[in-house]
Amino acid sequence: MTKTILITGATDGIGLETAKMIAPQGHTLLLHGRNRDKLAAAVKSISAITGAGEIKTFRADLSVLPEVEALASEVKGEVSSIDVLINNAGVFKMSNPLTNDGYDARFIVNVVAPYLLTKSLLPILGSKGRVVNLSSAAQAPVDVQGFLNKRAFSDSDAYAQSKLALTMWSFEMEKELGANGPVIVAVNPASFLGSKMVKEAYGQAGNDLRIGADILTRAALSDEFVNASGLYYDNDRKSFAQPHPDALDAVKNKQVMEAVEQLIN
Predict the structure, then answer these.
(1) How far is CA 64 from the centre of its chain?
(2) Which tens digits make up the pLDDT trace of 228-249?
(3) CA distances (Å), 125 to each of 22, 81, 91, 119, 150, in order?
(4) Residue ranges per domain, the chain?
(5) In the Cβ-directed half-sphere of 65, how many Cα atoms lie within 13 Å?
């Protein structure tokens, strides 16, 4: 049975590789990107794969929350349901890391945008859907007040904190929704993969992106993740694992959720 799968940040890196890996199975792919030309190029390369199904594209800048809301509305206008949402889009280094409101754009793109998109799409995900959140081995305690008070963060601090915050809201949202919500799982796709982000951060070519694409494809479609809601999968260990201890702290998780809601509202 074919499924409808939305992948954010699908024009390059792990997102594009995941779309290419899923394509031969004939699923309907909803591809998000910031650049229309890159989206067109992604469609061209994916549609050439034998067995590829229908492909739809959506453009939005995830650092601008009204565009995230518009993206959700556009998706709901195009399809009546989605089976999988892969929140893959993320940033590490930016020429200007601040939004127009003065917040760190890494937190907005990596934490707030996927939260808002997920929450907005819950009505068409249902209890049988899956949400795969792209976490990381790089996780550091979240300075919630520093973020809300527009403190300046280094690239590595902003990234590591944002990836822990993403994992934290994944766990907390799963608790709040319970059996009525989709499977929500946070996945570290593996360290030092050959993405643009790794090249920017470490100046290294990195490992084969298909390592990350494989685990995201499995998280989206395989039976091994059917009961994975509220869990963390560490692809460095090739198993489900404990995340950073803060992600197991209900009080800290709620603080992150409240901060995200405050920004959205």
Answers:
(1) 16
(2) 999 999 999 999 999 999 999 9
(3) 19, 6, 25, 10, 33
(4) 4-264
(5) 22
130 phi and psi, to 5 degrees?
A: -135, 140
Q: How many whole angstroms separate alpha carbon 189 and alpha carbon 187?
A: 6
Long-range contacts of the stretch 119-124 (C-beta < 8 A, 24+)? 119/173, 120/68, 120/69, 120/72, 120/73, 120/76, 121/6, 121/72, 121/75, 121/76, 121/82, 121/85, 122/177, 122/181, 122/182, 123/76, 124/75, 124/76, 124/79, 124/80, 124/81, 124/82
Distance from C-alpha of 104 to C-alpha of 120, rounded to nearest angstrom: 22
Calculate mean pLDDT across residues 178-188: 95
DSSP string, 66-99: HHHHHHHHHHHHH-S--SEEEE----S--SS-B-
User: Domain 4-264, what fold?
Assistant: Rossmann fold (3.40.50)
Q: Which helix (H) or strand (E) holds 164?
A: helix 155-177
What is the C-alpha to C-alpha distance for residues 211 and 194, in angstroms, rounded to an integer? 10
Give phi and psi for 6, each to the nearest 5.
-100, 125
Mean pLDDT of the 147-165 span = 94
The answer to pTM > 0.90 is: yes
Per-residue model confidence as pLDDT tens digits over 90-122: 998 888 889 989 999 999 999 999 999 999 999
The whole-angstrom distance between residue 107's C-alpha and the CA centroid of its chain comes to 12
What amino acid is encoded at 260 in this protein?
V
Q: Is the pLDDT of residue 16 over 80?
A: yes
Residue range 30-57, pLDDT digits in tens: 999 999 999 999 999 999 999 999 999 9
